[in-house]
Design brief:
Keywords: Leucine-rich repeat, Repeat. InterPro entries: CDIRP, LRR_dom_sf. The structure is a single chain. Helices cover 6% and strands 19% of the residues. It is elongated, with a radius of gyration of 26 Å. The chain is built from three helices and 22 strands. It has a domain of 127 residues: Leucine-rich repeat, LRR (right-handed beta-alpha superhelix) (Alpha-Beta Horseshoe), CATH 3.80.10.
Length: 355
């Protein structure tokens, strides 16, 4: 009957049920540390703060709570959590659950995220540019890219399975709390100007990192091929050779590919300007990379290449002397001033006039 109620605190009791369906004006609800196995807040659209940690919740629907900025649902039995309809969210505590995935891409205001003690295998915080604190330790993460999180002040990512950690663009000094111990890292990527400071201050002896971990401006995780051009990597994602835009692709996903067409006839915003990573396609026999914005092309590792169409780019030189299997080459409509060919009578070249 308390329809005008705006705040309710009923935590630290023995409640097994809670009905707030008639309290449509409710803005703050604290019901943590009870025995609740369900909680319906779908009729509370004004809710800005929900604290329901320390219960036995197996599910939680906050899709109608678009105004919520603080959500503490830690220490429950949640195996999924959808916060895609909560753009105002600034604080999220979902630690100590059974989450296998967590999508925070629609939470640009997020500044504090605690998701440790779950079963997360991936975590993308690239859209959370306001993030200052991330505690994601004790998960199953293999990859963590913090390069978009320039406001970061505290990162705890120990006890995962990380093989790659990108801390580029993050200001690294005494103001940054950092712990990445008990992972599978050989290298942590930082800006060049922070390498010396990180090497001296983030150490195995201090318990910050594992023994033998180094800091570098570029880390190459074992088993991956570096693909720095986002449009090239997106093309690989579209071709199902990759699954996330992070500058790397699993080498085993591309090493057996024999044919690839990344030509671009219409969409200027999708032009590929750098084919770094093409060397990982060691079985490639056919490549069409025409109608892009390539200024250089290194195919020395693609020795099985039979057909190459690189027309309508911005190439000034092209060396295919290592591509001894090449039988067809189309390099017209470039700006070539140098062209090194194969000395073979079996090769038929199309319009190799230097321009």
């Amino acid at each position: 009957n308390n329809t005008a109620l705006t705040e309710l605190g009923c935590g630290y009791n023995d409640l097994t049920a809670l009905d707030v369906s008639n309290n449509t004006a409710l803005t703050k609800l604290g019901c943590g540390s009870n025995d609740l196995d369900s909680l319906d807040v779908s009729n509370n659209p004004a809710l800005t703060k929900l604290t329901c940690g320390g219960n036995q919740l197996t599910s939680l629907d906050v899709s109608n709570n678009t105004a919520i900025d603080t959500l503490y649902c830690n220490s429950n039995d949640l195996d999924s959590l959808d916060v895609s309809n909560n753009p105002a969210l600034t604080h999220l505590d979902c630690r100590s659950n059974y989450l296998t995935s967590l999508d925070v891409s629609n939470n640009p205001a997020l500044i504090w995220l605690s998701c440790f003690y779950n079963q997360l295998t991936a975590l993308d915080v690239s859209n959370n540019t306001a993030l200052t604190t991330l505690s994601c330790w004790q998960n199953q993460l293999t990859w963590l890219d913090m390069s978009n999180n320039t406001n970061l002040e505290h990162l705890v990512c120990g006890y995962n399975q990380l093989i790659y950690l990108n801390m580029k663009n993050v200001v690294i000094d005494t103001s940054l709390g950092f712990w990445a111990e008990e992972n599978s890292l050989d290298c942590i990527e930082v800006n060049a100007e922070y390498i010396d400071w990180a090497t001296e201050n983030w150490t195995y002896e201090n318990g910050d990192i594992d023994e033998g971990v180094e800091f570098s401006a570029l880390c190459m995780p074992e088993g991956y091929t570096y693909v720095p051009d986002d449009n090239f990597e997106q093309a690989l994602i579209d071709l199902t050779y990759d699954d996330v835009l992070n500058d790397f692709v699993l080498t085993e996903n591309i090493s057996d590919v024999t044919s690839m067409d990344i030509s671009n006839y219409q969409n200027e915003e999708d032009y590929v300007s750098d084919l770094t990573g093409i060397g990982g396609f060691t079985a490639l026999t056919y490549l069409d990379c025409s109608y892009n914005q390539l200024t250089s092309l290194n195919l020395s590792a693609n020795t099985a290449l039979d057909t190459l169409n690189c027309r309508s780019n911005s190439l000034t030189s092209l060396d295919v002397s290592a591509n001894t299997a090449l039988a067809y080459l189309n390099c017209r409509s470039n700006s070539l001033t140098s062209l090194e060919l194969i000395d073979s009578a079996d090769v038929s070249y199309t319009n190799t006039t230097l321009v």
